[in-house]
From TrEMBL:
Species of origin: Chryseobacterium takakiae
Protein name stated in the entry: Uncharacterized protein
PROSITE patterns hit by this protein: PROKAR_LIPOPROTEIN (PS51257)
Domain of life of the organism encoding this protein: Bacteria
Amino acid sequence: MKNFLAFFAFTIFFSCTDNSTLEAYDKDQVPAEVTVKGFSKPDIIQMRLNGEPVSINGATSYTDKIETKINFVLDNGETDELEIYNHQTGNRIAAYSITYNNAKDYKNLYFFNLPGIFLQTYAVKPQVNLGKVGFEFIFPNLGEFSGSSLQNVKGVLKRENGVVLAEFDNIGKKDFTSVKIYNYFSATAPVYLELYKPGTTEPYTGAVIIKATVKQDIGANMIVLQEKMENGVVVVKGDIDVADYL
C-alpha cells in the first residue's frame, strides 16, 4: 500500500511539472538582446522601443557616447519597433523592425549621428604616432547618385604632384577601412582621393576619374565619402571627419 501511494504521488508530481513546462512554451517566443554602441554630437537623441523611451543609467535622452543593452521577448508573428529620434526636434532619425525571425540580425546596433549624416557603423579612433597622418574611409551612399552597383571601390590617395600616399583596396558602405599611415608634410597642401573600380584603373563610374579633395589633419582622419550631384554631375565629397567627434 505504501509503495502504491508513493508511486501515485510521484506520478502526480511529474504530471504537474510536465504541464507547467508545456504551458511556458504554449506560444512560440524568442528572447532578444540588442547591444547598442552609438555616438551623437551635438544632437541629443532618444531611443524608443514600441514608443516607450529607453532608459540608460536613468536618462531617457542622451548625447556623446551611448552604450546599453536592450532586452525583450518576441512572440512568433510579433514586430517590435526600435526607433531613434532627435530629442530636440522630434524628428525620427532611424527605425528598426525586429521580429521573431530576424532578431538575431539585431544583436548589435552601431551608429554615429553627426551633423548632416547618420552612419550605421562602429568605429574606434586609430592610434597614429606623432608626426604621422592616418586615414580611414567609408562610403555609405555609394551608388545613390551615380547608379553604380558596386559595393566597394578602390581609393588612391595622392599629393597635388601625383605622388601616391596610400592605397585602399576596398572602401565600402558599411565599415571603415583599415588605417593607412604616412609622414605628415603640410598644413595647407590638399590631398586627393581618386576612386576606381576594385582591382582596376578604371573610374568607378563614368569615363572620367572621380577625385575627392579631403582635408589632411595631423593624426587620425576618418573620412566619410558622399556622392552628391552638382550642376548635373556626380561628385564625391569628403567633408565629414568622424575623428573630429571622438
